[in-house]
Amino acid sequence: QVQLLESGGGSVQAGGSLRLSCTISGYRVATGCMGWFRQAPGKEREAVARIDRADATSVADSVKGRITISKNSAENILYLYMNSLKPEDTAMYYCSARTAIGCGYRPIVYNAWGQGAQVTVSS
Asked: Which listed residue, of 19, 77, 119, 123, carries a Cα 20 to 30 Å from 84's Cα?
């Protein structure tokens, strides 16, 4: 059974930084596609970043230049580094895994999800 557990969320002022971590069990991050999504109240879940088995990364245009995704395959942890945070970045952030071959940006592509970590950015 694949389990994902996010940590590192919190409250920061605009311009601040946070690092989210996702600890994975039951699946090796080195073997598939991992992603970070976020969902603000009243809005749909949107993709933030993803990293595939070849370590190729992709970041949403809305956060490009401010957010980096990476993974530690030895420790089986996925990271999301967020800088220059804005109030519009406020959301619940979810770690996700696709255990089948392939990668993508749509939430339906991913079959395992964490419980989420709240990020709140104040102006």
From this structure: 77
